[in-house]
Write a structure and sequence with these properties.
InterPro entries: Glyco_hydro/deAcase_b/a-brl, NODB_dom, Polysacc_deacetylase_ArnD. By secondary structure, the chain is of the alpha/beta class. It is 47% helix and 17% strand. The structure holds zinc ion (ZN).
Length: 217
């Protein structure tokens, strides 16, 4: 009798633990957090904040910054982030000739790969400036162009509150534009994690096939 009672208690406890883990891991949907213009002197702090809050993101790196700071590209990967191509010198690609666009994109692919960031599959044109030529060159390098559904306006000196609220507008599959650098963006990270969790959304990867946020592979 005593043994059977203990067994029942153990089974009940296991059941409680199991359901707790299941609910903690439940995601009603995924969103794509993106941070452009790195790596910068703020990258390590950003990575620390993201990790501490259980968030993963896509970092759209500038090629010349990746070439100058390869260790930070490796740190992005080590922290569980995905690395994308954001051109080599951050120009208005939609105002350039095809050969220049090709150079901007191809040099960045090489710089990120050489740094240890893998060969990117995602590409974001600076300023969202794109056209048929830019799209065509990106496709030539196996890159999916990713713009955004929500602009946090962190590049425009948005407040921490405004950045958190922008994240709170995301729905399943959507992508938000943020940057590696602004102090308010870094300060917003814990509250971004809270607002997403309150809505049952998890930070996911951006699918190179669909351009939508999905569960991490
Ligand atoms: Zn940019």
């Amino acid at each position: 009798m005593h043994t059977r009672f203990l067994a029942a208690v153990v089974l009940a406890a296991a059941s409680v633990v199991g359901s707790g883990q299941a609910s903690a891991a439940a995601c009603n949907g995924y969103v794509g957090l993106t941070f452009d213009d790195g790596p910068t002197t703020k990258t390590q702090s950003l990575l620390n904040a993201l990790r501490q809050n259980g968030l993963r993101a896509t970092m759209f790196n500038v090629g010349q910054a990746a070439a100058a700071n390869p260790a930070l590209v490796r740190a992005q990967v080590s922290a569980g982030m995905w690395v994308g191509n954001h051109s080599y010198t951050h120009p208005h690609l939609d105002q350039m000739a095809r050969a220049q666009v090709d150079s901007e994109i191809s040099r960045t692919q090489r710089a990120i790969a050489a740094a240890g960031g893998g060969t990117p599959k995602l590409f974001r044109p600076p300023y969202g400036g794109t056209n048929a030529t830019v799209q065509s060159v990106a496709t030539q390098y196996g890159l999916r162009q990713i713009l955004w559904d929500v602009d946090s306006q962190d590049w425009n000196n948005a407040s921490v509150d405004a950045i958190v609220q922008a994240n709170g507008r995301l729905t399943n599959g959507q992508v938000i534009l943020m940057h590696d650098g602004p102090a308010n963006t870094l300060a917003a990270i814990p509250r971004i994690a809270q607002v997403l969790a309150s809505r049952g959304l998890c930070a996911g990867m951006i699918s190179p096939q669909t351009g939508r946020a999905v569960a991490p592979a």
